[in-house]
Each structure stands twice: as structure tokens, then as C-alpha cells.
DNA sequence: AAGAAAAGTCAACAAGTGTTGGCATATGCT
DNA sequence: AGCATATGCCAACACTTGTTGACTTTTCTT
């Protein structure tokens, strides 16, 4: 056991940071507020993470953990994917942190791109889906739009959807984005 | 002609405000930067608009101008709607201002709700579409997600879509959200 | 041309920001 | 035990923010 006490406050800072970044966005989440939540002094945050930027980088670490899609029947692709994404969104608040901050913070936007283009595209490629990048982009529009309306804007009808209803509504959309031949270019 | 000179700077301030709010979000768009863009003194902004909040309220005035849908054939609803929304988005940067700010600013979020629930729902109701609120919410997820990925996150594959390609991809999605019977509730 | 009103400039304020260094306390090793 | 090191707190810094009031210049009426 190297340093037990410091590890605990380190973790407390990170948890508070995620909470604040997720609730307030990058600029409105102040070091002082995060430190207060973690019940320590603001200077501790600097000692442990160096700067606000680096703290954010640590708080926004995320992996979407894409499942492999080889043996999923084509017409169920959307269902599987939507259910996975919704669950991922509910269990790990890091994605919400990213969404809230990516709009005004370039580093967060870059990480968002890595997740939704950089992680979806190769998965589709391995599943022998043509034009994987375009399809990843389209699915990102639907997935991120859903999260935006549900967790950030809190549009009543979207907040009220159950997981099953969500899958029933969005699943076919995603399936189509994955299987429909690309429209003719002009 | 009441006051010509003041009207011109008033408009210059509003234009600069829209630019900055749209590019930087609410908190990072400073009064000083807006004033500099408009080539006037920061105190002028206060004299004309009272406060940053009120300036923002003026800059975020928006009407989505929904077309009536009575005599659009059911299977072309999505096509018509998507084309209208994309055009609206390209011609009026106010929507981009709203999107960039709604994530961290409650007033902007409220206006977003008014636009996408408050203006879509009654239009669908007048077109005799059942469950108009849920369908408005679903369409908001797809429309806002598209805008987020294209104008804010700038995901390459989404930025590269032409208007026609966008309509071809998203049109059927929106049509389905408008015409598909609601899935069974649990 | 004289004076009032409008338009614009300047400097400062109070508050809040990220960040830093000095100093106290606790912890663990020998 | 004593000491070095890790951990923590305090006060202050330099800077930026929205906002204000006093002052000067322009514009227009009469």
C-alpha cells in the first residue's frame, strides 16, 4: 500500500470534478467549487492534478466499450447498439460530462470525436459494413441528439421514455443507418 | 427617422453578440469582446441592453417558422421537414447560438424547449398526428443531434453531407417518427 | 448661435477566477 | 524516540469579469 490517504482525496477530487463538470460545464465548474465538494482546499486540486485542464482530462477519460457485431443478424443491429449505448449512458456519467463540456471546450470536443468516430468506425469495419465512417457519423447524430435532449435539455417527452421504448423507437433508425445502401451522390 | 446613429450601433452590438455567443458559448463570450467586435465601448452595451443576460435574450430571439403539413402526403413528411429544418439552420445563425448556449445556460435551454416542443407539437396536432409531443421529442433528438455533430462537434462525415444527402438519410427517420404507431407501453 | 439631449469615452469598482508559495500538521520509517 | 516526508490549510498574487458613474464630444432643435 503506497499512499492510502492521498489516494482517497485524489479520488474524491475526481468524483467531485465529474459531478461539477457534468452539471455546470467546463467554465462554470470552478476549482473552488470542486474542492468544496471534495471537502479539501483548492490548492490540493492543483497539487494533485497540476491545472484545471489536466483535472478535466482525467475526469473525461472514457471508453464506449463497443461490443463486436459479427454475429448479430443485420435487422437487429440497431436494437443491440441502441441498448448498449443507452446503458452505457446511464451507468457512466463521464459521457454526460463530455457532452456538457464538448460544446465550449475543444479538448472535450476532440475526445467526443475520438469516441464516436474513432471507436465506432473500426467496429463497423470489422463487421464488414461498407462506408463505416458515414454510418458512424449518422449514428452519432441520433445517439448524441437523444442524450442531449434527455440529459441536458431535458425535453419532457424524451425524459419520460423507458429504455425499451427508446430501443423500439431508435433501434430501427440505427439499423437503417447501418444497412441502407448510401444514397446516390450528386 | 427617430434616432439613426444609435440604431446602427445597436444592430452592430446585436450582430457581434450573435457571433460571439455562437462561437464561444454564453460564459466565454465576454461583453468586452463583443464590444470590441462592434468597435465601441463596453459601457455602450450596458446602456443599450441593460445587462449581459438581456443582451443574450435579444440575440437568441428565434422562430422556427414551421410550415403547415395538412396536405403533405404522409410518406413525404420527413423529407419536407428535414429540408425545412436544414435550411433554417443554414440561413439563421440564431439556432446555432441557441445550441451552443443551451448546454450551460438555463434561459437558452428553456427557449430551446419552447422551439422544439412548443412549436413542433401544435403543428403536428393541427396535422391530425397522434401523440404529437412524443413525436416532437423524437424529431428533436434527430434534428438537434444532427446540428450538434455538424456545427458544434464538426464530425467530419457529418460536415461533409450535402443537403440532399442529409434529406435522403434523415428524411425516412423523421417520417417514421411521425407515422409509426407508438410501441406498446409496458 | 446657444443650449439640450443623445452618443460615446475613460477609469474604476467589487467580485470571482486559476494558480502559487509559505507554513502547519500528521504520518510513517529507523 | 526523532526525523523526513507526505498531506493539508491559509493568504495572497495577477488577472478577468460584469457593471457603474463622471466626463467629453457630437447632434439636433429652436
Description:
- Two copies of one chain form a homodimer.
- With about 190 residues, the first copy, chain A, is mainly α.
- Helix content of chain A is about 70%, strand content about 0%.
- Chain A is elongated, with a radius of gyration of 19 Å.
- The termini of chain A are far apart.
- The mean pLDDT of chain A is about 95.
- Chains A and B meet through helix 6, helix 7, helix 8, helix 9 and helix 10 of A and helix 6, helix 7, helix 8, helix 9 and helix 10 of B.
- Chain A binds a DNA duplex (30 and 30 nucleotides) through helix 1 and helix 3.
Q: Helices and strands of chain A: which structural class?
A: mainly alpha
Q: Count of DSSP helices of chain A?
A: 10
Proportion of residues in β-strands of chain A: under 5%
Q: How far is the first residue's CA from the last residue's CA of chain A?
A: 64 Å
Radius of gyration of chain A: 19 Å
- Helix fraction of chain A, binned, reads over 70%
Mean pLDDT level of chain A: 95
The tally of beta strands of chain A, per DSSP, is 0
User: Which overall shape of chain A is indicated by the principal axes computed on the Cα atoms?
Assistant: elongated
Oligomeric grouping of the chains: homodimer
Largest sheet of chain A: none
Give the helices and strands, then pairings.
Two copies of one chain form a homodimer.
Chain A: H1 4-24, H2 31-37, H3 42-49, H4 52-59, H5 77-91, H6 94-102, H7 106-126, H8 132-152, H9 156-159, H10 163-179
Helix pairs in contact in A: 1-2, 1-4, 1-6, 2-3, 5-10, 6-7, 7-8, 8-10
The structure holds a DNA duplex (30 and 30 nucleotides).
DNA-binding region (chains A, B): 30-49
Domain HTH tetR-type (chains A, B): 7-67
Protein name (chains A, B): TetR family transcriptional regulator
